[in-house]
Specification:
Number of helices of chain B: 12
Strand order of the largest sheet of chain B: 1-2
Largest sheet of chain B: 2 strands, antiparallel
Largest sheet of chain A: 3 strands, antiparallel
Strand order of the largest sheet of chain A: 2-3-5
Helix content of chain A: 10-25%
Radius of gyration of chain A: 27 Å
Distance between the termini of chain A: 59 Å
Structural class of chain B: mainly alpha
Shape of chain B: globular
Oligomer: heterodimer
Number of domains of chain B: 1
Strand content of chain A: 15-25%
Number of strands of chain A: 5
Shape of chain A: elongated
Structural class of chain A: alpha+beta
Order of helices and strands of chain B: HHHEEHHHHHHHHH
Amino acid sequence: MAIGVKVMKRPTQQTSYLRATLKGMALTFSHLLRPKVTMQYPEEKSSKDWTLSSRWRGTHRMLTDEQGRAKCVACGLCPQICPANCIKLVPGEDEEGHRYPLIYEIDEFRCIFCGYCQEVCPEEAIHVGVHYENSEYSRDRFVYDLERLTAQTHPVSTLWDPSDPKGE
Amino acid sequence: MTFFLITSAIKVLVVVNLILVGVALLTLLERRVCAWMQDRLGPNRVGPQGLLQPAADGLKNFLKEETSPALADKALFTLAPVVSFVPAMLTFGVIPFAAPLPTKWGVVPMVVADLPVGFLYILAISSLGVYGIVLAGWASNNKYALLGGLRASAQMISYEIALGMSTVAVLLLAGNVTLSHVIAQQQAAHAWFIVPLSVSFVIFFISALAETNRLPFDLPEAEGELIAGYHTEYSAMKFSMFYIAEYSNMVTASALMATLFFGGWDIPFTTWDSTGDPSALKTVATLLAFSLKTFAFLFTYIWVRWTLPRFRYDQLMALGWKVLLPLALLYITLLAVAIWFVRIQLGWDYGTRMAWALGGLNLVLLIALVWWLDRGRIVSGSMPQEAA
């Protein structure tokens, strides 16, 4: 007996190794035949038990109007609120006085995916997306310009709704 | 003579390769069964159902860098994997794996070497395996490895005694150590030795778990406390050799259990396989039966591994010396008396009648044993401490 090992005084049923062993063996064997929880990732991206939340905040998407132009009016709220300072906006104005972004770039490496840009946008133009597969071959490909932001097709995030906190 | 040499050479080649392939597939089986028991899928990407995973692992181990600790004993460090690998490969040689195969030139017994010393050879060679582990532990010049090696030597030598004692019962009944005779006796009696020797099988099974360093007795490796024990410092192919040795020991132990207690290549409920002229069909069928039995034990090994937690070291020693050894000795004594009584007093020869009579005795002993073990006071640690 090892020195000073404290041993609990337990009733016989609890200290029976054979019963516990057989029980354990039966349990592991039953698990052998149960349905598996593994998701075969590249082939299946969601299962009946798990899908990406509609509130997921992933890489951005810029929505467009009927003419295919970005809805953005270059108001400057999103670069203002962005805590990571990842949005670069240079506003422009056409001859009718409509404001539009000359340059709109988001550095997805700097972005912390807080979703404030989507929350603050008065035109519902910039959105965070329900999307997570973002690999690229070079670092500079992660600075998304306006053309790329409007070309994204993934669904946009619904964000958290304070009036419906549990998403029901 | 030429016939013997040629067939032996072919059998050696086939058996060694089959064991290596079997070991490779066993590593895959281990990982997949483990995964299934944990509700996962396990490796299933390389090849259909992951069947090529062992090949990928092997390739990786060939290409990996061999590290060699600066203060290790170079010669022994290199020798240790070999010392552990070779006995593991040798032991399978005496196990008959199928009914004899008739060829144009004569009947070939389906065993590499049907030695008269039979499983004494297995006991002798498999105990050499401990040298590989101890040398690895010592030569690594690493505290964890040394502790692993120490544990391995104590554990394997302790349980070897219980293992040997439990097989003495088989000798008493069979009166012969040649494995082909042991199988023939079981076939003739239409009762495998599990019936008259079930207590012996229980002891053998537990000792075999300890001998092959498998959970719940994997203290020489004990990744939680000793990193990886004796093979902490090993990498690449040297590590792979320990791994293969461990798994081929498992294969041999399983095959031995099948041979000694479950009729070897005997197909149950029929005399077709052991009587009459040998034929190729019989060889294949009996080979299948043998493989199935061996596989069942291998699966049990894996099953036990992913179910039971590791023993504490003093518990392990207590179980070996205070429970299994006295139990084996007591059992041999009882069995010897019983066999003497049945053979001399009643004048029975070994056969179905005697097997089942002894089976009854074993049943009584097993019930007594389970009743005693189930008190929960056997493995020390469950015992309340005496007042200091």
